[in-house]
Amino acid sequence: MAINKIGVKEVTPQIKKPWTPITLASVENYDVKLVEFEGDYFWHKHEKHDEFMYVCNGEISIDVKDSAPVNLKTGECALIEKGTVHRSKSQGKSLVMVFGRNTALSDFVKV
């Protein structure tokens, strides 16, 4: 048996630009990714799989088609159910841990 300790502060400098995740770990068929959010991401959905976000540092907003946006700050999290059309955004730099199926694809959509 092994336990792999991961220091989030130590791996954060590996993120070279916003919206480019680094994989911290793979758990069964799921990836745990660290992503820097800054500005707006594209409208998209994950047709077959849920997505989970935990805000490590900063504040983000998740716009949802035909619904009110969900605002999250440091220490808060949200589950985005499969098929939900959404986009993430952050006015400044925010650090977010994203949990999702490693086979999940993003279907980009026009809103």
Automatic annotation (TrEMBL):
<feature type="domain" description="Cupin type-2">
    <location>
        <begin position="43"/>
        <end position="94"/>
    </location>
</feature>
<dbReference type="InterPro" id="IPR014710">
    <property type="entry name" value="RmlC-like_jellyroll"/>
</dbReference>
<protein>
    <recommendedName>
        <fullName>Cupin type-2 domain-containing protein</fullName>
    </recommendedName>
</protein>
<dbReference type="Pfam" id="PF07883">
    <property type="entry name" value="Cupin_2"/>
</dbReference>
<dbReference type="InterPro" id="IPR011051">
    <property type="entry name" value="RmlC_Cupin_sf"/>
</dbReference>
<dbReference type="InterPro" id="IPR052044">
    <property type="entry name" value="PKS_Associated_Protein"/>
</dbReference>
<dbReference type="InterPro" id="IPR013096">
    <property type="entry name" value="Cupin_2"/>
</dbReference>
